[in-house]
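Archive entry. Fields below.
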Amino acid sequence: MSDVFLSLTHISKSYAGVQALDDVSLVVKPAEIHCLVGENGSGKSTLIKIIAGVVTPDQGEIVINGKPFRRLTPMDAIREGIQVIYQDFSLFPNLTVAENIALNYELSRNARIVRWGQVRQLAEAALGKIGVRLPLDAEVESISVADKQLVAICRALVQNARLIIMDEATTALTEKEIRALFKVIHNVQQEGVAVLFVSHKLDEVLEIADKAMIIRNGKVVVDVDAANLDRNKLVYYMTGRRIEEADYDYTPQQKRPLLEVIHLSSRGNFQDVSFSLWPGEIVGVTGLLGSGRTELALSLFGVLPVDRGEIRIDGKPVHINSIQSAIEHGIGYVPEDRLTEGLFLDQSINRNIVIRTIDGLTGRGGLLSITRLKERARQWIRDLSIKTSDPELPVKSLSGGNQQRVVLAKWLASKPRILILNGPTVGVDVGSKSELHDIIKNLAREGIGILVISDDIPELLHVCNRILLMRRGRLAGMFDRRELDENKLTSLLTESTPAAPAASTTQSLSPQIG
Amino acid sequence: MSARDASYTPWAWTRSLFGDGNILRLLIACVVIFVVMSILRPDVFPTPENFLSMGSQFPEIGILALAIMITMLTGGIDLSVVSVANMSGVLAAFVIRALIPADAEAGQVALGLAAAVVVAFLTGALAGFVNGLLVAYVNLTPILATLGTMTLYTGLTVAMTRGNAVFAENRLVFIGNTNVLGFIPIPLIIFAGVVAVFALILNRTAFGVKVYMIGSNVNAARFSGINVRRVLLMTYILSGLLAAVVAIIFLGRNNSAKWDFAPSYVLQAIVVAVLAGVNPSGGSGRVTGIVLAILALQFVSTGMNMLLFTISGGQFFKEFAWGALLLTIMVANHLSEQRRLRITRRSKPET
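PREDICTED_STRUCTURE:
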């Protein structure tokens, strides 16, 4: 046995002319925590898929356990002990914790009879290995996101994982749960299992990594011992020289705020939030998942009920208790998850664009005018440079960036005065991202008030002129763009309580490591 | 125009005509069945008499299939259509008996029939309204809600009639017996009219587009400000109205209405809708598909009858033929869909 578990050499992969990975080499040793760091669209996911055998590289060599693989299949990868925990965990929500952990393994024996006692034992043993307790008989849909993740880790261990790949594992977790997860990862490491931890969050990387590989635009920037890294270096490596984006310079246009939110509360979601939005402003709303940022947006859009407080538009108090009423007041909302909430994937690009304004597109005899419909859609396709060969094709034929433009177009068509963008560039490639940012800035220059909900720090800094920070359902700060830089905003965003700086948490972990 | 437009072929217009290929396959099936039957039984199949006979057989199921289609487009279903038709028919027959005495003059007859039709439509709309309330506002699963109301409406009809047939005093039989210009059965004209109106509603009104959008992604529809509940309610009302149209045709054909008439039509209408390419989970399906599917099925069953009537039990072959046709078309659709997916997967970059 060599002391190298996995080695990738000179891996390249391109999709339709776009170089997703360019000459990437990676070595993972047993019981090593290796971080893979990069921004959205840097090629991280492609690399994971190659290691998992889901995607075949155009060039390069894959060696696992000393065995070279010309064409690695997902079955090969699993047999060699590679387990990927994707963001959705791929668990069975209607089965119990024990069944989720052990059933895959039990079924892979190919026996006709399931040994239920064995299932429980296996599950219990796996949970023991990572040092956590979970109710074995609870249905997985009833447990928390963090616990689901632990179930996924245990399932990987039961299947004799030698390398566990965790894709953006902390996105949906609270600070406390992240701490607990890191403990578990160290326990996994004690079992001799390597972990490839994929992230774009600097603090996490600095805290957990033995080694870190940073990739940008499909190329390896650096692959070093984590000891040689610090926050500033990481930021530099991650962002590097990139498309220079001018910050948004806001010039006050009018004397009256467009939107005023006064002591707004929604029970269980957020409390006592007050701020105002002026015409032409782009205000960022940021915070970790669970900070109440999305809930605030949903309340302004009439989806979540408001218990207390007031919303004023043009100085007049308004009641927003349904999506329809929000729309009547000129509010538009581009949802966080464009696939489930924003788009009609099977329907044509044309229909997706005009659906908001379809009631007004009538022609002779009150019937829908197909000519006007197509003309309206064509205008938006041109204005937002949506790349398509035929607007009658289903919208799912478009790339992520173009899909997002369709959702934007849908809302812009109805001429909103206030536009709420929730994660406007999630899953959009780097080039398309800055173009979307330009579109957003131009909209604001035309006098629309825009709220951008995001945890993408460079995005917030490039696009917004003011940034609101939310923490545990409360407004924790309001900053002018000019007061902030990337480091400052990052630390504001990630510090949970004043009493938990990185140093003290490392300390609390050390007994576990030793 | 960018370089990508190279993929724009001169054949693109055919998509608007044939949709996703399913319509084209149905058209081919229709033509093939027609030609084969004409070759096998040239003496009886391609004859005016047979066209007349076929044309008077399918309109009810065709209209019921449209009712199933519009609810399916939203991702739902309306199992109560036939029970609504029977209830509307019974009430219309009551009105005819009450308002038109045996020695009535032409004016009185016309007035009475108009009232009967209005009552049938009101009944259909009300029954659809109840279905719509249960689905859109109480959030019951459509299949369960309409299964419940199906039983409910049937029960009401039994109670109103004590389980007996209600006769329409020969006042509507002209619908079942008259052939306009000597060769077009009235039910066929009604069917054509309903198809035209329905196609217009689905393709050329904002409501129609919203129906498709809701079926495609109800969440996105909500976030786009579509009043989903109202559209759903309208959909089920429309389905009830179509059932009322069928009620009138039933009365015209049978001269009576009864609570247990034609229960098998529900499943047959679903077969037609599915064969037509209506996606049971919503969002896609065309009126053209319904017309072609009902024609193909009618050709098959008539043709089979003609081929096998000498054999004892030959008439039962109709069910077999329908099933076989349905499965063939569905397998063909599935295979072509898979091929299409493979192609797009190969050519599309992942993000």
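CURATOR_NOTE: Strands of chain B lie at 166-167, 179-180, 184-185, 256-257.
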